[in-house]
Sequence to fold (90 residues):
Amino acid sequence: MTPPATSNKWVVGETRAVDPTPGADCDASYLVTLTRGESKVRSMVEFVAPAAVASIGYAREVLAPFLADDELPRRLIVSRDGSVRVVDPA
Fold:
């Protein structure tokens, strides 16, 4: 019997609201903690003002496409139209 494959993906952990980056024209911001094995990183997800769709769940969802990457972006900005821009790569 083959042992189960181990996942190399980042696992989303604690997510909390934080103050947006000064001068970023964002009115909502979340700090997301992610882990993979012994590694632990934080990514900030910010929403451009006025942020009608900002939420902890959406902040986590925005990071989903990056979870298999070796390094995660440190900061992402979500525009009003829902597009995501990496502002501070790993």
User: Anything to note?
Assistant: The chain has a mean pLDDT of 89. The chain has one domain: 11-88. Helices lie at 56-63. The radius of gyration is 14 Å.
